[in-house]
Every structure is written in C-alpha cells, then in structure tokens.
Known about the structure:
α3 packs antiparallel against α4, α5 (79-110) crosses α9 (169-182) and α13 (249-256) packs antiparallel against α15.
Amino acid sequence: MNGDALLPIGDLARRTGLTVKTVRFYSDRGIVSPAARSPAGYRLYAPDAVARLRLVRTLRELGLDLSTTRKVADRELSLPEVAATHAQALTVQIHTLRMRHAVLTAAAGRGSTPEELEAMHELTRLSEDERRHLIDDFLASVFGGPDAAPAFAGIMRSMTPELPENPDTEQAEAWIELAGLTRTPDFAALMRRLANHVSADLTRPDPTATIHTHVTPALRAGIAPTAPRAARIVQAVKAEYAATTGHDLLTFLRTANDPRRRRYLQLLAVINSWPPPNEPTPAFAWLIEALTDTADAAGTGRT
Length: 303
C-alpha cells in the first residue's frame, strides 16, 4: 500500500491506537470524515486522518471536551491558547484534589466522626477571602480587634497563615488542622490569656526572650530546677518578668507551654514554608518545675 492509498477503518484504528468503535464514533460526529466508500459501502480514510486522529486522541486524553477538540483539530482555535486555558482549569482541579486528599487523610488518621469530616470538608471549600476572614476574626478575638494595641499588629501578621494557591498535601493538611484550632473556643480563650501576659509596650523585653536568657545557660550547665543554684535564676526571671508585664510568671508559663499553642506555630510554619519554630518547651518546663519547687519550699518552710 502506498502513502496515498485510502485506509479502511481497521487500518486507521491500528495506526492511531484507537479501537474501531472509537474511530467510528469520531467519524459519526464529523471529527474525522471518510474520504470515500468502498464498493461494498465501507468507509475509507485519507492518510492525513492518522495525524488528525492522533491529535484528537491526545487532546481527549488530556481532558479536553469533544467540541473544543474538534475546533483545535479544525484550527478554529489556537492550540497554545487552548492548552493554557486547560492548564489553568487543571490547576484548580489539582488544588481541589489536594484539599480533598488532605481531608480524607486527616479523617483516616484521626478516626473522625461524620460531623468532624463535614466540618473539615467545609474548611477546604473556603475561598481565599473567606480563609483570611476566618483567621482575621480569630486573631482579632485574641488581641482585641479594632481596639488592639498597635504593637500587636506585627504579632498578628506573624501568626497569619498564607496558604499557597497550589498547596502541597502537607500544607493542605496543616491548614485544615490550624483552621479547626481557630474555631475552637477553648483555644481562642487560651490565646487571649496569653496575649494578656504580653506587653503592648515594644520597648520592654519579650518575656520568652527573658526566660531563655536566664534559663538556657542553666540547662546547658546541667543545673536541676530543684538545685539550690536554681533559686537565684528563678528570682532573676521573676523580677525581670514582673517589671515587664506585672503578671504572674507561672500562669504565663503554663499558658505558653500549652501543646495547642505549640501546635499552632508548627502548623503555621508548614503552611507558610517557614523553618520549624524554636521550641521553648525545655526552658519553660525547667522554669515551671523550679517555680513550683520554690513555692513548695516556701509553703513548708524548707530552705
């Protein structure tokens, strides 16, 4: 058979990797038309039908609808323009699939109830504006809303998750968990208590930095929180903390050391692609034990 010979439908199917039924389907819809008929009435196709059908197969496998496929094959639409439009549509679908995957992964890992699954799914359907409003409302409830001290603006920005347009699975899972935290009244109350212990005066030292300054050397030196030397460290921290905030240090430590607050910061780092947050737990745990021991000693008259 020479290159200009007409092809019966079976040969066309073999050359394009399609079934005879599929070629007949495209032929019936005018995507590829027979050039002639055999004496017995069978369809015969021109050699250029091979390239046309290969293009059609590729476009359909990439997800283009039949109408668009026909227009591209007929050169009524530019292939680059169609490809760009379809790629954008796929981006949206990929985002949706990632979020659905995150919901199902989280539900499987937590053994979620139907109500929890519904709540997680609702969080994935929020628009970017709705996600921002959710976080803004949470942070406003923590730091005082419109009446919040100007100094808290930077803290609020540092606690704002920015979910990328195309998050990976880990970021999507982190967003669902973090958003769920912000909708928990107990967590919002915890963060409000913590905010009350933070001075709005930026000229004063950060209490967490104060604690690290005094306690980290003790940790490195292996000083036990119940050792006599620990008492001097405790007094130094208490004095500096009281001058900074005027609040009770032990209450601040127990609030700041709550695992939910640490989890929020860990999830925030994942969503925003930040390095993992510094972990204050060892210093806080040391100081909590030292303060408790000091209080117990005072209560029993022990020196």
